[in-house]
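Lab notebook, bench 4. Still working through the backlog of constructs that have no structural model yet. Next entry is a single chain of 1259 residues. Request: give me the structure tokens for it.
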Amino acid sequence: MCLDASATQWKKRQYLMELLARKLKKAMTKHTGLQVVWETLTLLGPVEPEASAFLLLVSIAHTIYLSVQFARVPSSTDPDQIYQLMTEQWGLSPPHLVVALVGGDELAQMKPWLRDTVRKGLVKATQSTGAWILTSGLRFGITKHLGQAVKDHSLACTSSKVRVVAIGIAPWTMIHNRDLLPDQPAAYPTEDLPHGSVYSLDKNHSHFILIEEDPQRPGATNDMRVRLLKHISLQRTGYGGPGSFEIPVLCLLVHGEPKILQRMYKTIQNATPWLILAGSGGVADILVTLIYRGCREAELIQELLLNTFSGLHSTDISSWVKVIQRILDNGHLLTVHDPEQETSELDTVILKALVKACKSQSQEAQDFLDELKLAVAWNRVDIAKSEIFNGDVEWSAQDLEEIMMDALVNDKPDFVRLFVDNGVNLDEFLTYGRLQELYCSVSEKSLLFNLLLKKHQEKQVVLASARTPGLPYMETGDRRPRFTLHEVSKVLKDFLHDSSKGFYQKLPAERVGKGRLFHNQKDLPDLDQLCENPWRDLFLWAVLQNRQKMANYFWAMGPEAVAAALAGCKILKEMAHLESEAESARSMKEAKYEQFALDLFSECYSNSEDRAYALLVRKTHCWSKSTVLNLATEADAKSFFAHDGVQACFYMKRDEIPQSRGGGEQFVELDSLDTEKALLLSDDDPASRQRQRLKFMKPINLSLHCPLLMLYVSGSEAAGDPTSQSCGQAWSQFLLRRWKRFWSAPVTVFLGNVIMYFAFLVLFTYVLLMDFQPPPPKGPSIAEIILYFWVFTLVLEEIRQSFFTDEDMNILKKFKLYVEDNWNKCDMVAISLFVIGVLCRMMENTYEAGRTVLALDFMVFTLRLIHIFAIHKQLGPKIIIVERMIKDVFFFLFFLSVWLIAYGVATQALLHPNDPRLDWVFRRVLYRPYLHIFGQIPLEEIDAAKMQADNCTMDLQEIITGSLPPCPNIYANWLVILLLVIYLLVTNVLLLNLLIAMFSYTFQVVQGNTDIFWKFQRYNLIVEYHSRPALAPPFIIISHLTQLFHKLFKTAESKLEHLERELPAGLDQKLMTWETVQKENYLARLERRHLESSEQRLKSTSSKVQGLLKVVGGFREQEKRLVTVETEVKYCAEVLSWMAECFDKSTLKCDRDAPRAPRKHLSWYSTTHPTPSSPSMFQFCSRLTSQHLCALQAPRAPAAVRVFLSQAHQRRRSQKDIQDMEQTRNCLTLMSESVSMNATLLSCFATKFTLSSAFTFQG
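Model written out:
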């Protein structure tokens, strides 16, 4: 088919072919079987004048399972056109690796290991990158097995980005039934044909390039393959974007006939590396033998060719010998892999081969980026360390920036650590733009993507509401939304609340506008700006994606480790509740960040208790001024609060007292000034030690029957300063300050609230029982009015707790956080019932209803008293047990209600089918079955044998009036008794025991962690009363008015926030440095513990055993070689002895004396190799003359003698494994000297034979 038609004819032909394609697709629905249907799809337009012979026919084939595309091109086609065809028209993504499979089609029967290596190893090595595998495309030999492996991978692969593409490049003349392909759609049968001149195309290949060879230019297909590989190697692709790195190309040689040598040499000239499979036979084994021996002698190459292949012509052999020698000259491009001897996987060998070829050409870092990115794609950090980052190449931070992004996106924490260790500085690498790109690369199946998408949609709604009505907002660009750091900050706000305030926003000084919409768009930082806290930002990015290994590395490298661990704990706990996949939720729940925070704080507390306390109350810089205690509260870290160091902090802070430890050798009073002194003054300073000794404490017991409350008077404070004030003034100031601290202390506030709450309950009881007056104007009484005012002050306090907090969030969010506390829910119910009861009691017709509601409300207020006892060590955990058991009761009631309704309705229908009284129906259906559980079973109403007929009636009117009860139906009374037995069995035996088992499990869980739960409850109680006003209701209104006054006039409050400290810059930096040192000590201890673990020891032992087995295997190989050496040396001795005996009978003589054997080795040689009974060969040599020539036929040496002798030196150089074996080394030395001596003798014989005449001897 030619392409000289006009443009009109071309369009008509194109239309007809598209119509034909549509008809074929309809016919495919009726197609069955495994034949391939080929369809001519389109013809590429008219060719250029200089390429009139160019024919490019693009076709597409459909099978039941897959689609096949092929192109038929002449051998003179430009490879660039073929590459554009594959990438643009066929839609193939540029490959990240190209492996050309060479040879193997000659093998009808293959070894199992060879088949598995190609099937599993090659496909596994390429499937992680999205590679192209170039083969012959014919259904024969190793290509057939490779095609099956590619098909299996394609069926199992779920990602189109890493799809393995098998492309067959075959000559047109070698295709069986090729006449069915180009002209019209037809069924193409794929058959398994025997070895011959034509083969079927392999149906498992997805693409084919069929080469029309010129009859005058044989081998054009191989030239096309070479040129196509060269062109592909010059193209660029990459994971981080187009143009990232050049496509690596590798040729894999399996077996092979001599005719592929020329193709191999041409590709080597293009600097294409080759990987040779040892043991596959053919040319591959010849090259492996020559590489191992380090020999390029023509005679040896010729002999190997003759021994491997039969029927070769001498002219072809000489040309192939030269080609092999040229190939061996480029040894840096040749890599040998022996799957039977080596344990390395094929992907490792491929990567090493590419790195080896790169090293031989350049030592610049830019030239190694291709191999490094391939190592990242295969996650082979071991190869990157040993082959690329081994010190030979100098890397800069700029060289690794792009590949660093690839490692972050593809979750390769080992490579991230490697790049940071080799020059990447995160402070200069991570910009807000790159951080935004990392969030945009989140997987669509992850929970983080859904959260960001939700925030993105909310933002679009806000933007749409700000636009002109009638013009809906349409998002441009890709279907995948482009997330910004605004959505990220919103997601973090939901998890961390105030701890993430201001994340990814401009500083207040940089903001130039106001308004919510402006805040969403304009307050974001510049994308080119460097991140202020790169380690924190990457830690959050990894935690939000549940990449715990990556997050652990960023946590270990970042600052403020205790706070960061608690923040990660909080995020993962929240995400575990939102995650729908069970496996992901389980991994989130099993994260160890709370344990990290606990262990690290233990390390800090054991080093310095004062500094550990300062670490708890210090306002962090990376977490929006939140303290460690705030983050631990957000994360619900009960184990962290149960730590002795945290509890000691509460003891001090509740009473504002330091505990004297260490005999006064340390500063322990942790107010703002003394904290700075404790951290800045070292123990080596004599002045500081003297000042510390002067700070002694004098306790004064306040006799409040509370061991937690004591007031200390400092001796230095009591002394005063005589130069500035009198003693009386100093004491008055001291007492005033202590008086304020006493009333604002949490324990004082707590005791005051407890006492006043009991007074409130007493007043409430008095009003309900003795002074509940009628509605106005007669009531209410004075006591009731006081009660109303008291409740009003309680309402004001609840409003303050819910809405007037320091958190920067909207009212709905504040209310949501307030409602999350169960005790706050109880307060809301109590106040609501009180309001309803008061409103009802003020009206005459609802007066009694108001009394009823207030009576119920009193119960709620009384139950609220349980919260007070949470401070008690024994009662506190029991409160949690009761709370959890109530949840268990609800599950029990669900099952009970099912059986109760089923039994009640059935018995009511059997005993009283027509009872019109609705209230009695509910009693018998619900109430009576419930009483059965507790043993109240009225048999006179159920059992017909005990029923009294005169006490009932069947008259409907009497039943309605209630004069007599209805008579029960006794038709199926036996069934009622049976249902009663089953109901009691299920409820009393099964369900009640189930409830008891649930109660037992709950009790064991809480009781096993009693100390942890109690300490956490105590902390919450301390924080709650620390933030409350000093006065208790109803006097709390005074504190509320004071706070309102300070709020209106913007004056600072006098109460000192002891649980939050803002340290000076220098002191804060020293504290962070100290925490970092303790973190390094903790991580070092973890590493030692890991290395000493049983699992790690087993791995180390296994590795050592494997190495020992390799050494032992090498010893066995050396023994075999020694036996071979002894055999060959013995043969040489016999030959020389035979020659000496022959020349002894002649008149030949040598001009020089025979070489003398070394004396110290002669005895060993004579004992191990006895000579014939004839005279010594050394004596025979001295009798030789120059007038004789031996014409006897000498014993023929084995075929392997010369081969072995040629490799003796090479093998001896590689014998590193037996250097420690003294005896083996001596043996090799003796054999080397013996062979050298024999060579000297042979040289003497050769000289004399050259000078002598021809004689005939009889030997």
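Notes after review: The mean pLDDT is 75. The radius of gyration is 46 Å. Flag for follow-up if needed.
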